[in-house]
Amino acid sequence: MKVIFLQDVRGSGKKFEVKDVSDGYAINMLIPRSLAQPATASALTKLEVERSRMAAEKNIQADLLHKNLSELEGKQIHFKVKASEQGHLFASIHKEDIVARLKEELRIDANPDFIELAHPLKSLGEHEIVVSVKDQKAKFKVIVEVQK
Question: Which stretches does DSSP call E strand in the chain?
Answer without folding.
Answer: 2-5, 18-20, 36-38, 76-81, 88-93, 115-116, 121-123, 125-133, 136-146
